[in-house]
Amino acid sequence: MRTVPTLLALCSLLGLARAADSSCFHANASRDGVYSTSTLSAPKGLKWSHATGGPVVSSPTVHAGRIYVGSDDGKFYCLDLATGSEKWSFTTGSLVRSSAAVSEGSVWFASFDGNVYCLDADSGALRWKFATAGERKFSARGIHSYLPKTQDIPDFWDLWQSSPIVAEGLVHIGSGDGNVYALDARTGEKKWAFATGGVVHSSPALAGGLLYIGSFDRKLYALDARTGALRWSFTTGEDAENHNQEGIQASPTVVGGVVYFGARDFHMYALDAATGAEKWRHKITWSNATAAVANGRVYYGTSIPAHFVALDAATGKEAYKVDLKIPVFSSPALAGGTGFVGSFSGRLYAIDLAEGRVVWDFQTEASRANRAVVLAPDGTFDFKRIFTSRFYEDMQRSGDKLFDLGAFISSPAISSGILVIGSTDGNIYAFE
To answer: Which of 276, 272, 278 is nearest to 258 (CA)?
Structure first.
C-alpha cells in the first residue's frame, strides 16, 4: 500500500474536500458524512500535526477556519485549521469523547465528568454547563466472556460519548445516564428528557422535526424534537450467545426518508423514517460507526471481520466490501468519489467508492513502532498476545495496547481542502 509520498496521486483521483464548514459530527444534522468538494491544484500531503496530552477518540468539528476537538487529557481544544496552532483550550473534569456542535458563536460538547458544556467559540470562555445524572460506560455481566461471570463489567469497546446536534434553539444529546436531553442552547435549561433503558452514546440525527437516536437497550427511538414525545421505537436483536454485548452504539443516518444504522446484533438496518417500519437488514458483523450515505449507497466499517462495506441503499444488497484487517470504529467521510476512514491499526484509508479499492493510506509512527506487539503476521489482531487473561481488569489493561498503535477511532472531518482526524497517539492530523 502507498503512504504519504503518493498523496499527489491520491488527490488527483479524489478531488478532495473543499467543503462548506461542518458544524457537527459527521458533517450535518442528518449525519450523512458527505462533504462538498473541489479538486486541489497543489496537494502537499501531511500539512501539520498537533499534540494533545492524551489519546484523541472524539472527532473534530470544523467551523469558520477553526477545529474544535476533545482529548482524553480532559481538555477541549480550538485549533487554527490552516496551521494547527492552538487558539485556546478548556479543561473539563474528565475525558472528552463527545464531538462538538458549533453555531452562532457557541460550541457544545459533553465530558465524562457528566456535564454538557457550552463555550464561547472564539475565546473558550464558559457560557454554561448542564449536569446530567452522570456518565458511565455500558456494562453487563460476563460481557465478552470476561471473568467473573457474576460481575457487571464495563465494556472496553464502548469508546465514545454522544455528540450534540443544535437546531431551533435546542441542544439535543444523549447520556450515559440513559437519557436523551433537549437543553436551551442559550442558557442550558433542560427543556425535556426522554428516558431509555440503557446507556446512550449514539449521537442524534435530526430530520423533518424528528430526532433519531439509539440506546444500548437495543432500541432506536424517533422523538419529537420540540417536545421529546415518542413517535416510534424499533427493537434490534439479542446477542445472548455472545454474552450480552448487544445494543446500538452507532449513530443513525437519515437520508431520503430512510434511517440507516448499525447494531451490535451483527446487522445494518434501514427503517422508514416516518413509521419505523423495517425496509431491510443486512447481516455481516458489529457496526459501531455511523454510516455514510450518498449516490444510492450506504458505506460503513465493521469490526471482526474488519471491512469497509458498500450496500445498495434501496435493497441492502452488498455492492462490495474491502478487507481492512483491523476493526473499524471510525465513521467514513465522503468527498467526491472517495471515502476516508480510519482503523484501529493506526491507518487512515482513502477508498475509491466506485471500484471499492484502497487508493492510499497513511500510517502513524506509533503504528509502525508498535504493530509487532499486537498484530499477527497477516496484519490482523493477535488476540492471544493482546489479552493474556480473561479477568476483566487484565482485559481492560490489555485493551490499552490497542491505543498504542495510534489508532484512528476518531472520524475525519473535511473543510477548505483539508482533512482533519484525531489519533490515540494524542495527535490531531491535518492533510491537504
So the answer is: 272
What's the structural domain count of the chain? 1
**What is the number of helices (H) and of strands (E) in the chain?**
4, 35
- List all residues 6 or more positions away from 14 whose beta carbon is below 8 Å from its beta carbon: 37, 335, 336, 337, 338, 350, 359
Q: Locate cell 465478552: which residue?
A: 144
Residue 219: strand pairing partners: 235
Write out pLDDT tens, residues 319-364.
Answer: 999 999 999 999 999 988 899 999 999 999 999 999 999 999 999 9
Region class of 133: left (phi > 0), else alpha (psi between -120 and 50), else beta: alpha
336 Rama sector, left if φ>0, alpha if ψ -120 to 50, beta otherwise: left
Q: Which of 161, 180, 179 is nearest to 170 (CA)?
A: 180
> pLDDT tens across 176-209, in order?
999 999 999 999 999 999 999 999 999 999 999 9
C-alpha separations of 270 from 136, 145, 236, 273 in Å = 29, 30, 12, 9
Bridge partners (DSSP) of residue 300 are 309
pLDDT band at 12, cuts 50/70/90?
Answer: very low
Q: What CATH number does the domain containing 412 carry?
A: 2.130.10.10
The DSSP output letter for 19 is P
Spatial contact of 338 and 17, defined as CB atoms under 8 Å apart: no
**Which pTM value belongs to this model?**
0.93
Q: Is the peptide bond before 327 cis (omega within 30 degrees of 0)?
A: no
| Radius of gyration for the alpha carbons in the chain, expressed in angstroms and rounded | 20
In angstroms, the CA 205 to CA 253 distance is 6
Q: Provide the residue range defining the domain that includes 382.
A: 4-431
